[in-house]
Amino acid sequence: xSASSAAGPGSGSSRPPGPPSGPFTxxxxxxxxxxxxxxxxxxxxxxARRELGTSLADMREANRxxxxxxxxxxxxxxxxxxxxxxxQPEASIPRKIGDLECEALLWPVPLWPDLRFExxxxxxxxxxxxxxIRAPGTPGPALRSLADLxxxxxxxxEAARAFAPARPMEGTAPTRWRLAFTAPDGETGxxxxxxxxxxxxxxxxxxxxxx
Length: 211
Known about the structure:
alpha+beta; 8 strands; 5 helices; four-stranded antiparallel sheet; globular
């Protein structure tokens, strides 16, 4: 599914039988992640969905229910919602951003065994960011040229470090990020200006503004 084994889907379990009104599960949450990625990489998403043993209707229903939770008048706070869906985090890591003490909560994502879903909490437990990162202690991909920037191969921070200085750009939709930077062509070595697009923090595609 992906040129990078570090980002490729791992083993997934099939959805247990049950009515659509049942609890929203970690499997459902993975379908929510995939739903956003389908706009850019429908083939990868279809392969991942089949590996999870779910249908296109399952993915659409999971996304509908997630959106309903997000917009419910008396819905849970963001961090409580993640805890209710994903359970207790695998790790809680202190982070310092400037002078602010923050906390990063990490959950495993079976589709991408080398990644973790991170919720970054600021003061007063306010959610500042929600995306996929490389699991702590797991080697990231070797990013040397544009040829290495394949779909699902790296995260936002990995691309930003590999091709510094990278300029953050406004995303085209919620849960999407963009980075502008220059990187060498894999064949000629010529440096090219490009924009990398990410969904939930995972690379989806690279475009070239100059054509």
